[in-house]
Design brief:
Elements lengths: L4 H13 L3 E3 L6 E7 L2 E6 L8 H7 L2 H10 L7 E5 L1 H7 L5 H11 L3 E5 L9 E3 L2 H11 L5 E6 L4 E8 L2 E9 L2 E3 L6 H14 L11 H9 L13 E3 L11 E4 L6 H13 L4 E8 L10 E7 L5 H4 L3 H20 L1
Antiparallel strand pairs: 1-2, 2-3, 4-7, 5-6, 5-7, 8-9, 8-13, 9-12, 10-11, 13-14
Helix pairs in contact: 1-11, 5-6
């Protein structure tokens, strides 16, 4: 079993800073930081004890977070939440799968669908027609009783990590793709990419029968048996989350101050100290921020996949967690 990234790193930093970090020994996913005599702070994976619980709960709910961000004047994707049959019965509403399909037709295809309370890109998919939408909704309602249907937003996908008054990490995210060899099938290319990610310390959370993958292939008239031309790039997913095999371009050192200021204001306004801000814009990250959309926020942004990009990226993550660990003890 591989060691959990965040807790293992915090344990390492605890030794470096002479701070007691105790991990639960069997799974090592949760831990305790000694703050003083008889006083402790706790964490579970990347959920660190730095954000107020209420703000963290709102950030973890895509629908509620979008509502409050919109009320604050931040542009968010147009969308609505819909309930599983079981949730409709509990809440005595007809806001069900049928209503979601009707709403998607109002927005116009393609649309984005995603679980309301999942992270790391779990279940996020772009669907191009009613048949794909119905298959996707059936799959997502197994993950979450609430599914969000949104209008598609076009642009470059950026993740900015905010901690208090700093933005120490920022990167552009690009979806999982493979490059054809002229002889290998997409199934073989995907398997090779999976192995490559494992050697980088990254796990790919994507099965071959995943509707997100199958839907993207259908859009392109492809199947896993298709053989791309030599040098041809085939995008396998629409969402760019690194946990689903996406790649990243580190822009931490070159990010324009306007991006930084936006992320800081939003994080503060949402009552958070640590936040991952996901935004879409067509502009260059080194230039002043133009039109943009806040896709979502995350109160416990995972940095394992980013840290695997390079030694420099890992050092940025280590520096951030060093500061957080210090603050858990001394703030």
């Amino acid at each position: 079993m591989s060691q959990p990234f965040t807790s293992t790193l915090l344990e390492e930093l605890g030794r470096e800073l002479s701070i007691e970090v105790l991990l639960e020994p069997q799974f090592r996913q949760v831990g305790r930081v000694q703050q003083g005599e008889g006083r402790y702070r706790y964490f579970k994976l990347s959920s660190l004890d730095v954000n107020p619980s209420g703000s963290a709960k709102i950030a973890g709910d895509k629908t509620y977070a979008s509502y409050f961000m919109s009320e604050l004047g931040y542009p968010v994707p147009e969308g609505k939440a819909f309930f599983s049959d079981a949730w409709c019965a509990v809440n005595k509403t007809t806001n069900d799968k049928k209503a979601a399909m009707a709403y998607a037709q109002e927005l116009g295809f393609p649309v984005i669908i995603k679980p309301n309370a999942k992270a790391q890109g779990a279940g996020v998919m772009k669907v191009a027609n009613l048949a794909s939408l119905e298959r996707g909704l059936d799959q997502l309602f197994l993950l979450d009783n609430i599914v969000v249907v949104q209008r598609v937003v076009v642009g470059k996908d950026y993740r900015l990590i905010v901690y208090r008054d700093t933005v120490p990490i920022a990167y552009e995210r690009r979806p999982l793709s493979v490059i054809g060899t002229g002889s290998a099938s997409l199934e073989k290319l995907l398997a090779d990419r999976r192995e490559q990610l494992v050697t980088q310390g990254r796990a790919l959370k994507l099965e071959s029968n995943d509707e997100r993958l199958q839907s993207r292939l259908r859009e392109q008239g492809l199947t896993l048996a298709s053989v791309p031309k030599n040098g041809e790039e085939i995008q396998l997913l629409q969402n760019a989350n690194m946990s689903t095999g996406g790649t990243a371009i580190d822009v931490s050192a070159s990010l324009h101050p306007s991006f930084i200021a936006l992320a800081q204001r939003l994080t503060q306004a949402m009552g958070l100290a640590l936040c991952g801000v996901d935004l879409m814009t067509k502009g260059d990250p080194t230039a002043p921020l133009g039109e943009y959309t806040i896709i979502e926020i995350n109160d416990h942004p995972g940095l394992e996949h980013y840290a695997a990009l390079s030694d420099e990226a890992r050092n940025r993550v280590k520096s951030l967690y060093r500061t957080i660990l210090h603050d858990l003890v001394h703030r």
